[in-house]
Every structure is written in structure tokens, then in C-alpha cells.
Specification:
3-stranded antiparallel beta sheet, alpha+beta, 12% strand
Length: 159
């Protein structure tokens, strides 16, 4: 069975989609949730997102799983290792597989669990904000929010 919760946030409506075991999507897209109800998992994720937006939470611990290839799963796992309030470049993020930079960037772009799987923390090698399915203004807001909470992050790489 599928479930959904919707919350208002500083970056617009956020929709959380889950089954009985895992959250499988957190999206900014207008998603038809007709006939779907909340469950304890979507409510838990919703509360954690609210706490994130209040600056009270830096790590999500609800169970999450999205469909993807083994390669994509590895990229998404690596995204979870980027510390809150920090950024990395696509080149640095893919340094362990430099020939796969385009595939890594593509997998990053297919991440369906926004915010909790922090693809917004990956920026261009020149320090510019690039490529965010939720819109660059949201990426900027999320990075600025984390920078303000930690007082140590940055929204652009400094060389």
C-alpha cells in the first residue's frame, strides 16, 4: 500500500511518498495524492523535515529506499556522506571514478528523496549552483539554511 503526507515549507509544498516499510520519494513537484492517506512513516518523515526547516535537525533517520540500479544506489549512498552545511563539487564527488563523472551526475539528478538524500550539496567545480530538479532557487535556499544553522558551511566553493 502507498501513503503520502504533504507539508508546507519555506521552499514550497513538500510531498512525502512511502509504502509500509520505506519512504521512497520526497518531492517539490505537485504530486497527485488522491486516495492516499498518511501512515506513521510519512508522519515521521514530515516531522523530521519540519525540524530540518526549523534548524533543529541535521540528520534524517527514517527508513528510506528508492528504486534504482546498483550504481545509482551507490551514488545516493555517497550523497549521504556529505556533511550537513558543506558542499562538494561534481568533480570531487566523482574523484573515485573520474571517468564516470557524467553517470554520477545523472544518478545524482535521479535522486527522488530530496533534502534527506542531500543532492543539493553537490555544486559545479567553478563554485556555481548547477542542476537541481527542485529549481536552483531551492538549492540556494537549502544551502544557505544549512550554512546559517552551522555557521560554517558555504554556498559556493572557495579556491
Amino acid at each position: 500500500m502507498n501513503y503520502a503526507s504533504v507539508i508546507a515549507s519555506p521552499v514550497g509544498q513538500v510531498t512525502i511518498l512511502a509504502d509500509d516499510e520505506f519512504v521512497h520519494a520526497i518531492t517539490f513537484a505537485e504530486t497527485a495524492i488522491t486516495g492516499l492517506t498518511e501512515n506513521s512513516l510519512t508522519l515521521r518523515a514530515a516531522q523530521q523535515l519540519k525540524d530540518y526547516f526549523k534548524g533543529k535537525l541535521q540528520h534524517f533517520d527514517f527508513p528510506m529506499k528508492q528504486k534504482g540500479t546498483a550504481f545509482q544506489q551507490g551514488v545516493w549512498q555517497n550523497l549521504l556522506a556529505i556533511p550537513y552545511g558543506e558542499t562538494t563539487s561534481y568533480a570531487k564527488f566523482s574523484a573515485h571514478q573520474p571517468l564516470a563523472i557524467r553517470a554520477i551526475a545523472a544518478a545524482n539528478g535521479k535522486n527522488n528523496i530530496a533534502i534527506a538524500v542531500p543532492c543539493h550539496r553537490v555544486i559545479g567545480s567553478n563554485g556555481k549552483l548547477v542542476g537541481y530538479a527542485g529549481g536552483l532557487w531551492r538549492k540556494q535556499w537549502l544551502l544557505q539554511h544549512e550554512r546559517e544553522v552551522t555557521q560554517q558551511g558555504q554556498t559556493e566553493l572557495k579556491f
